[in-house]
């Protein structure tokens, strides 16, 4: 170790960033390595995160932070798997069951998908939580088993191991409790360090934007998208970012069991046309990344004719899940119907408010240690742009407690109905 490195002190580097100066590659490596080893304590890393929040990071600093976090833990070698290995990541949202459908759909075309997913927190849902609502599904798999599964059936969705990008796992938990989550350099380095370490050749990024997303504006979502695409390109990982609308919940269901059921319905050809079309568009982009050209019509056929569902069943069975359980209705004790009080068109269904409402039912976590109620949630009968008459069903709330009048009132006040019809596009912009 050089004398220069030995002389480094975290407090000096915090001050340097606090004053708006640029940290060197060596300084960032020293900080992240020390944090992963425990020699840089949480309170100093918290101060650094806040300094970054207010002063930002240069393109080089963001790159250095990403690669330092990659180096802080294990990296997965997917070379034993034949073909172009693909991966997909969402920056989080409400009712986001895309992975449950997209991964088996892409795999049904013979493109291997090796994916590590995360859990939900607050108003955002996590893919792992949805999969764990299936009886017996195992999210923790040894690396060798993960690779073997993708070799044999073409897909696997598991949880991130403790040793993969260790510094990011520590830093993310810290950011969550220090109000430093929503800053582009820290989001970009967190996402891309995991994707790079996970070993896929090509990466699709679903960057959500709007009320229910971390990125509230299209400008911020585009900055984040371009940063992450550039990070992927720098390490020879072809990456495409798709900015998608999260101003209302995605699809009809919010809640773990309910979202699995909706995903299955979509794969049976029974889903809403808008969410079905959206999944097909994403699949076409992901297949394009793997150098497979398919028309939307061909992709739609795979989605609704049982081929994607067969792949989903194969994955569930391979990871210990009960296939019959994916078709089981919610066992919530109470189902409360919510009716419209006026006629017109659905103008707003704010994703954040309904995500928080579902969390109050037990479908989400306020803190990481909260236990989930997999059976609770919301199923919307109407979405933005749909016509509705007074007295017509808006949604059903699944709960294990009788809803209070206040909760029903809170729900209804967030259903905005207007006389004019509004339309919302799901895909807002694509960054290649």
From TrEMBL:
Give the catalysed reaction(s), semicolon-separated.
2'-deoxyuridine + phosphate = 2-deoxy-alpha-D-ribose 1-phosphate + uracil; uridine + phosphate = alpha-D-ribose 1-phosphate + uracil; thymidine + phosphate = 2-deoxy-alpha-D-ribose 1-phosphate + thymine
Q: PROSITE patterns recorded for this chain?
A: THYMID_PHOSPHORYLASE
Q: Which GO terms describe its biological process?
A: pyrimidine nucleobase metabolic process; pyrimidine nucleoside metabolic process
Which SMART domains does the entry mention?
PYNP_C
Entry EC number(s): 2.4.2.2
Name the enzyme's class: transferase
Under the heading InterPro entries, the entry gives:
Glycosyl_Trfase_fam3, Glycosyl_Trfase_fam3_N_dom, Glycosyl_Trfase_fam3_N_dom_sf, Nuc_phospho_transferase, PYNP-like_C_sf, PYNP_C, Pyrmidine_PPas_bac/euk, Pyrmidine_PPase_CS
What are the entry keywords? Glycosyltransferase, Metal-binding, Transferase
**What Pfam families does the database record attribute to this sequence?**
Glycos_trans_3N (PF02885), Glycos_transf_3 (PF00591), PYNP_C (PF07831)
Name all Pyrimidine nucleoside phosphorylase C-terminal domain ranges. 345-418
At the top level of its lineage, which domain of life is listed? Bacteria
Q: Is the keyword Transferase in the record?
A: yes
**Required co-factors:** K(+)
**Any one GO cellular component localisation term in the record:** cytosol
Q: What are the recorded GO MF terms, alphabetically?
A: 1,4-alpha-oligoglucan phosphorylase activity; deoxyuridine phosphorylase activity; metal ion binding; thymidine phosphorylase activity; uridine phosphorylase activity
Family listed? Belongs to the thymidine/pyrimidine-nucleoside phosphorylase family.
Quaternary structure note? Homodimer.
PANTHER family attached to this UniProt entry: THYMIDINE PHOSPHORYLASE
What does this protein do, in the record's words?
Catalyzes phosphorolysis of the pyrimidine nucleosides uridine, thymidine and 2'-deoxyuridine with the formation of the corresponding pyrimidine base and ribose-1-phosphate.
Q: What is this protein called?
A: Pyrimidine-nucleoside phosphorylase
State the organism of origin. Streptococcus ferus
Q: Which gene encodes it?
A: pdp
């Amino acid at each position: 170790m050089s004398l220069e490195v030995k002389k480094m002190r975290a407090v000096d580097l915090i001050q340097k960033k606090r004053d708006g100066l640029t940290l060197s590659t060596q300084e960032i490596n020293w900080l992240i390595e020390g944090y992963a080893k425990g020699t840089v304590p949480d309170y100093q890393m918290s101060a650094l995160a806040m300094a970054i929040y207010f002063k930002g990071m240069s393109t080089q600093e963001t790159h250095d932070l990403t690669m330092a976090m990659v180096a802080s833990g294990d990296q997965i070698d997917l070379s034993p798997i034949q073909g172009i290995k693909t991966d997909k990541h969402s920056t989080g949202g409400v009712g986001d069951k895309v992975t449950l459908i997209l991964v088996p759909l892409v795999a049904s075309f013979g493109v291997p998908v090796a994916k590590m997913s995360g859990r939900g927190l607050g108003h955002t849902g996590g893919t792992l939580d949805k999969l764990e609502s299936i009886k017996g599904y195992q999210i923790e798999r040894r690396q060798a088993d993960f690779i073997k599964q993708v070799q044999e059936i073409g897909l696997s969705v598991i949880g991130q191991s403790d040793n993969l990008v260790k510094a990011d796992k520590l830093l993310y938990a810290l950011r969550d409790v220090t109000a430093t989550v929503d800053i582009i350099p820290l989001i970009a380095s967190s996402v891309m360090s995991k994707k790079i370490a996970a070993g896929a050749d090509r990466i699709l990024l679903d960057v959500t934007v709007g009320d229910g997303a971390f990125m509230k504006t299209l400008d911020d979502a585009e900055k984040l998208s371009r940063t992450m695409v550039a990070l992927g390109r720098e390490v020879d990982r072809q990456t495409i970012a798709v900015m998608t609308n999260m101003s209302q919940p995605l699809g009809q269901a919010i809640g773990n069991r309910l979202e699995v059921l909706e995903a299955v319905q979509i794969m049976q050809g029974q889903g809403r046309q808008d969410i079905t079309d959206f999944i097909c568009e994403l699949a076409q982009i992901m297949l394009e990344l793997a150098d497979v050209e398919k028309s939307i019509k061909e992709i739609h056929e795979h989605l609704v004719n049982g081929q994607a569902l067969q792949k989903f069943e194969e994955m569930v069975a391979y990871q210990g899940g009960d296939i019959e359980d994916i078709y089981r209705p919610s066992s919530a004790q109470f189902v409360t119907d919510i009716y419209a009080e006026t006629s017109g068109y659905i103008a707003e269904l704010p994703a954040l408010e309904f995500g928080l409402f579902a969390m109050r039912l037990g479908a989400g976590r306020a803190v990481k240690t909260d236990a989930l109620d997999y059976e609770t949630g919301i199923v919307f009968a109407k979405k933005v742009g749909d016509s509705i008459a007074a007295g017509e069903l808006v949604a059903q709330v699944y709960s294990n407690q009788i809803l209070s009048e206040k909760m029903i009132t809170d729900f209804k006040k967030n259903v905005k109905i207007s006389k004019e019809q509004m339309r919302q596009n799901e895909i807002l912009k694509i960054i290649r």
